[in-house]
Every structure is written in structure tokens, then in C-alpha cells.
Design goal:
Length: 381
């Protein structure tokens, strides 16, 4: 065992409370929420009451001013529970940090406290039907008209899309200026012309509401601009390392629980008169997976330390996302194999893990995009 040193005793106490909360308030209901296609909206408020949303928010807004390791503890525990319907990671690790970092005093005063309480659920809308990886190719436009912006366009695959009360929308404020014409604009869900589309029917993460969003002459005041006009792309690049590391962190926790469950399974299940665990192939597979996972965890923990220090660079975060998500999919696939036919049955956690994990290599930037970022850095002068 390589002991994990990234967390202190207080983080572990916090972990216990998150775990208990998930066991009582989430796990028993998650299968129903998978059928519903979304979690119960009230869960967000319950999580807010316990301090599980945006723990890093300033105390003046009801947060705990905690370091990002508390977010990581929540991410790990949610992944460990297998309850992939919770969109807390997008809210706490990705969207509210934009508000905290680039929001005006008025925006912060208006939105952060309700986000911490779970009264406001947030989403970030980058991807469009016509473009995902190539973010510069987005077409949703925000045209200035007096003291307002008029937004037109559509987005898809947006996490928390059904529950969202507030969406950070990536728009073109100057379509001819490429990346420099991109801006982030806050759109409240009750704005006229803003419409939530279908709750998308996904392969996995079935309790997670993931939606299309439509903007038809949506008027918002210019005060809804986040940060400066034309800086949207820069802000996205600055914040993506945290999002990518979160995905890597969740990948580690989900892989570990899947491997642990598989170890228990192969000890119980018999073939040819002895437990599967007695077969050399089983032991070799488990040994390979555990070795890779143990090594990756050390890397991920080091990345988390760097993030907390403010030193995690884009390339290293891309490595964390690439390594974590690819390894998770490999581990889960091997674990399904070790379960045999039972591994393909939805009632088995490993089957859900198989369906839930696949998207980790796609969202937050695909594995190929991570490789582009890493590869470019290697050949740069
Ligand atoms: C469940 C889920 C939740 C999501 N949540 C959100 C969200 O909250 N907000 C949001 O904005 N988006 C979200 N997304 C969208 C996600 O980020 C995109 O799907 C992803 O970035 C890929 O974009 P795309 O689907 O358009 O694929 P494409 O960009 O069309 O890519 C298709 C394939 O081509 C490859 N490819 C593309 N460009 C290159 C290149 N230059 N070199 C090599 N290969 C390349 C890709 O790697 C991929 O394999 C979510 C997606 C899913 C499935």
C-alpha cells in the first residue's frame, strides 16, 4: 500500500459525513431516479444544507472557504457510491468557480449564496449540435442591442440541463474575431426565449439530466456578461484544468470501487470446482489492474496538491484526464469480463459502471483532444 498523504484528518472526517449522507439520502433512491432520468430536485437543497455544494465558497456566501480537496472528497465519495446522477461536480467544481473568479460584485452577491444552498442549480453550455471539440467553431451569437445582449442558438449535451436555474452560455459576441470573439454570458432559466429541450436518453449516467438548450432572441442585460467581452475563451482555458482533474479524480474512485467489488465477486463465484480467484488468470488480471490503479492514484493525488497550490498546468491536467478516464474504462471492462454474464446485468454495479464510465473519455474534452494538447506541448520550441 502507498498511503495517501494528500488529505488531512479533517478531510477524512468530512468524507465520513458525505458517505453517510449518500448512503441515506441518495443510494436508496438512485435506481428510481435512473428511471426518472433525473434526481429529485430537493436533493440539491439537502446537499446544500449539509455544505456539500461549493464548499470552497467564501463564508460570507454561506460556504466553508474550504480548499479544493473538499471538492475532491465529495467527487470521490459520489463516484464510490456509483450514484452518477448527481451533477454536483459540474456545479461546484466547474460553474460556480467561474462566478467566483470572473463574476462582478453584483453577480457574486446575487448568485453564489443560492448556489451554495442548492436553491440555484447551474450548468455550463459550450457544446452545440454542430461543434464540441472545436470550441472556436460555436455559432450561438450574442448581439449587443442598447444595454442588452440578444442571444440566438442552441446547445446540446448540457449536464444539469433540466434542473438548471442559471446557465453560463458560451457565445460569439464577435463572430469574425475567432477565439477573441467568444464571451461567457449568464442566462437565467426564466428568460423569455430560453427553452429547455429533451432530457437526452443516454447509454449510462441515467439519473443525470443532460439536455438540449435553445435560445431564441433571449434578451439579457449587459450586466449578465461574465468578466470581459471577448475573454470567454481565455477563461475557459484557465478553468478547464480543474474540470479535467475532477474527472481524473472521479475515475480513480470509480475504478477502485469496481475493482474491490470484483475482488469480492471472484472470491465467491466458483468455476471448475474452485473460486475464480484461485485461477491464475484472475490473479494476474487483478494484479495488473491494481498496479496500474495504484500508480495512477499517486499521480492524481500529486496533481490535486498542485491544483491546491495553484500550480496545476493545462498539460498536466490533460494527462490526468487522459490517464484517469482511459484507465477507468479499461478496468471496468476487465471487471465486467471477470463477472461473466452477471457483469452484463443492470442489477450488478459493474454493469452500471460499464455504461457510466464510457463517457469519461468523451466529455470535458475527448481523449484525442487531451493527446493534442499534450503532444503539442512536447514538440513546441
Ligand atoms: C453525458 C455528457 C455530458 C456532457 N456535459 C456537457 C456540459 O455540461 N456542457 C457542455 O458544454 N458539453 C457537455 N458535453 C459535451 C462534450 O463535452 C462533447 O461531447 C465533447 O467535447 C466532444 O464533442 P462532440 O460530441 O461534438 O464530438 P466531436 O468534436 O464531433 O468529436 C468526434 C470525434 O472526433 C475526434 N476529434 C475531434 N477533433 C479532433 C482532432 N482535432 N484530432 C483528433 N480527433 C479529433 C474526437 O476526439 C471524437 O473522437 C457532454 C457530453 C456528454 C456525452
Amino acid at each position: 500500500m502507498i498511503p495517501r498523504t494528500v488529505y488531512d484528518e479533517e478531510h477524512e472526517m468530512f468524507r465520513d459525513s458525505v458517505r453517510r449522507f449518500l448512503e441515506s439520502e441518495v443510494v436508496p433512491f438512485h435506481a428510481q431516479w435512473e428511471k426518472d432520468g433525473q434526481v429529485d430536485r430537493e436533493l440539491w437543497r439537502k446537499a446544500g444544507e449539509q455544505g456539500y455544494l461549493v464548499p470552497q465558497a467564501p463564508e460570507s456566501y454561506g460556504g466553508a472557504e474550504a480548499d479544493f480537496r473538499y471538492n475532491a472528497v465529495i467527487d470521490e465519495e459520489v463516484s464510490r457510491s456509483g450514484c452518477t446522477g448527481l451533477g454536483w461536480g459540474v456545479h461546484s467544481d466547474i460553474v460556480v468557480p467561474y462566478l467566483m473568479r470572473y463574476g462582478s460584485a453584483e453577480q457574486k452577491d446575487k448568485y453564489i449564496a443560492p448556489c451554495v444552498r442548492g436553491d440555484i442549480v447551474t450548468a455550463i453550455a459550450m457544446t452545440e449540435p454542430g461543434t464540441g471539440s472545436d470550441l472556436q467553431g460555436i455559432r450561438t451569437s450574442a448581439v449587443a442591442d442598447g444595454d442588452e445582449y440578444v442571444i440566438n442558438g442552441s446547445k446540446t449535451f448540457i449536464t444539469n440541463g433540466q434542473h438548471a436555474d442559471l446557465v453560463v452560455v458560451v457565445c460569439k459576441t464577435d463572430p469574425d474575431a475567432g477565439a477573441a470573439g467568444t464571451s461567457l454570458i449568464l442566462v437565467e432559466a426564466d428568460r423569455a426565449g430560453f427553452e429547455k429541450g429533451r432530457n437526452l436518453d443516454k447509454v449510462g449516467m441515467k439519473a443525470q439530466d443532460t439536455s438540449e438548450l435553445f435560445f431564441s432572441d433571449v434578451r439579457v442585460p449587459k450586466e449578465n456578461l461574465l468578466g470581459e467581452e471577448g475573454k470567454g475563451f481565455v477563461y475557459l482555458m484557465q478553468e478547464l484544468p480543474q474540470e479535467r482533474l475532477s474527472i481524473g479524480i472521479m475515475a480513480m474512485a470509480a475504478s477502485r470501487v469496481c475493482l474491490d467489488q470484483t475482488i469480492e465477486y471472484v472470491k465467491e463465484r466458483k468455476a471448475f470446482g474452485k473460486p475464480l480467484a484461485a485461477l491464475q488468470n484472475t490473479q494476474f488480471k487483478l494484479a495488473e489492474l491494481d498496479t496500474e490503479l495504484t500508480s495512477a492514484q499517486v499521480f492524481m493525488d500529486r496533481c490535486l496538491e498542485l491544483l491546491v497550490q495553484g500550480d496545476l498546468d493545462t498539460v498536466t491536467a490533460s494527462k490526468a484526464k487522459l490517464l484517469g478516464s482511459e484507465l477507468q474504462c479499461r478496468i471496468v471492462d476487465e471487471c465486467v469480463q471477470l463477472h461473466g454474464g452477471y457483469g452484463y446485468m443492470w442489477e450488478y454495479p459493474v454493469a452500471r459502471a460499464f455504461a457510466d464510465s464510457r463517457v469519461q473519455r468523451i466529455y470535458g474534452g475527448t481523449s484525442e483532444v487531451m493527446k493534442l494538447i499534450i503532444g503539442r506541448s512536447l514538440i513546441a520550441d
